[in-house]
């Protein structure tokens, strides 16, 4: 509890919360538009802007640094859109080109900036992996303003963004400015990346764009639900990461935030109702059992008809030949349900079963 009154932790908590909420909201649209890698590309593309902002301002002034990051990230995003539209390159190839070029340029500029006087004290490298403890109150005001601006844009153009995300072809035929909306979405992702640079850094920021949205996708049934749940998951990841890293000295806040978001995503993929791996496997098992039950009963009926004997005793080995070794468990379940019954018939050849009256009625209902 004492940690909660620590000023540094309070700043980190608020900054991580802002990052989590806006990442969940904007990341939902990136995920639905199948542009998951754009967060990674724009995060790496922000590095040249960070370095240029530092060189121009002559110090670790967050305003110029973030402005430079937004500018370089936006340029990289527009470069990707231009490549896709003007060439035959697919989106993944264009993203790879933009990521490689921009990050290489960023590393060159970072090396140059580190030679400048005071660069070591400025902590410029902290933008690679994040440093939540360095967030100041003035930084939070700037980050909060950028976050509010991004969320307001989403609210104002909600219908248009929703249509472009689900049916871009119809959006273009309806007269919506498709290129303008795609550009706006790319710039919004760049804004989110910039917000998270100081918290989780260039390297890990891509996870925050995708992880909360991917987790929310498993629980939601509509875009509204997905955006809201993603924002909540992002918020929880930010809060847990900030508190956990503050509780254990030496744990970097950014990686812990990303690990928290990843843990929520893994849990959602495994256990989310209806879409989770666990529940899907249970449904498949139930369907398999139903199909197996109906198939075994149909075999009983067919053999009875073939021998013109409604009480024809079916040998266990015959069932194994038709349906595999696992059919013994199914036969026992059918017997417990009163659909088949064991009979004494040629005990040297193994167990035998007959179809009961209830079994005949059940098979009759199956086949009409």
Can I get a quick summary?
The protein is mostly helical and 368 residues long.
Q: Look at the helices and sheets and give the structural class.
A: mainly alpha
Give the termini distance in whole angstroms: 68 Å
Strand content: under 5%
Q: How many individual helices?
A: 16
Extended strand count: 3
Largest sheet: 3 strands, antiparallel
Shape: elongated
Report the radius of gyration as a whole number of Å.
Answer: 30 Å
Q: Round the mean pLDDT to the nearest integer and report it.
A: 83
| Spatial strand arrangement across the major sheet | 1-3-2
User: Secondary-structure element order, as H and E?
Assistant: HHHHHHHHHHHHHEHHEEH
Helix content: over 70%
**Which stretches are poorly predicted, pLDDT < 50 over at least 5 residues?**
none
Q: What does this protein structure show overall?
A:
The chain is built from 16 helices and 3 strands. The protein has a 3-stranded antiparallel β-sheet with strand order 1-3-2. It is elongated, with a radius of gyration of 30 Å. It is mostly helical. The model has no long low-confidence stretch (mean pLDDT 83). Helix 11 packs across helix 12. It starts with 6 loop residues before the first helix and ends with a helix.
